[in-house]
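Supplementary Methods. Inverse-folding protocol.

Structures were first reduced to a discrete structure-token string of length 242. This string, shown here, constituted the complete conditioning input.
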């Protein structure tokens, strides 16, 4: 227990400390600039502060999934230039007979083998969309390369499809296994690429994949589809690319 003199000293020290703290706090308050805005909660901006523009990554993210350099280049270019309009998009690699679905940040969401036109070529024959299937010659059965605005719709039989090039009657649709001799399901499941060329030009997709990954992309609005070329270069089809 402190003596009376010591009690007086202790009380005086405490009083001085309190006075100093109060004075120090006053100085700090006086030094703060007037009108300092309150800190906004996380994820919000203070009133009057404009939001910064969204800047997407300039490289597509395929994780550990193997893909050609062409797929990586076109996906990275799309997100880097915002050509896909901040929407999910699809890349079809004809040389590998594979389809890739990316989200709006160019992150790979799903991929699958596909069936494509039996003929090599990157253009549709003029007027092919007006021809009956029976009149389409073998060399005319190409899947055109290019950038397309894919839209959900129905063909003449009422089947749900994603139109790639409506005028040329080229679409993405669920694989049709109506003719056993064509072995379309087996072709999709095989490890080879050559037997994936069987269609008249449309892109055949496994039914479960179509429902799970393509319908959600195209149900709301049009979305970009990039069909990579067989014979032309990317620059010849899409213009200058990084």
């Amino acid at each position: 227990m402190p003596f009376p003199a010591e009690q007086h000293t202790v009380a005086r020290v405490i009083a001085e400390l309190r006075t100093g703290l109060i004075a120090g706090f006053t100085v700090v308050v006086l030094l703060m600039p007037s009108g300092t805005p309150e800190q906004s909660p996380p994820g919000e901006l203070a009133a009057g502060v404009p939001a910064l523009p969204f800047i997407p990554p300039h490289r597509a993210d395929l994780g550990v999934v193997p893909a050609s350099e062409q797929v990586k280049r076109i996906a990275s270019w799309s997100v880097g230039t915002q050509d896909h309009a901040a929407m999910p998009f699809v890349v079809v690699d004809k040389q590998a007979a594979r389809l890739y679905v990316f989200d709006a940040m160019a992150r790979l969401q799903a991929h699958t083998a596909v069936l494509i036109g039996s003929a090599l070529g990157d253009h549709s024959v003029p007027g092919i969309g007006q021809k009956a299937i029976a009149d389409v010659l073998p060399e005319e059965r190409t899947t055109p390369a290019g950038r397309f605005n894919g839209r959900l719709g129905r063909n003449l039989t009422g089947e749900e499809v994603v139109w790639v090039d409506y005028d040329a009657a080229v679409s993405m649709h669920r694989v049709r296994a109506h003719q056993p001799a064509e072995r379309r399901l087996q072709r999709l499941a095989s490890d080879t690429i050559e037997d994936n060329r069987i269609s008249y030009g449309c892109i055949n997709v496994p039914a479960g994949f179509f429902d799970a990954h393509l319908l959600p992309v195209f149900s709301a609005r049009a979305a970009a589809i990039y069909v990579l070329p067989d014979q032309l270069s990317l620059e010849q089809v899409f213009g200058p690319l990084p």
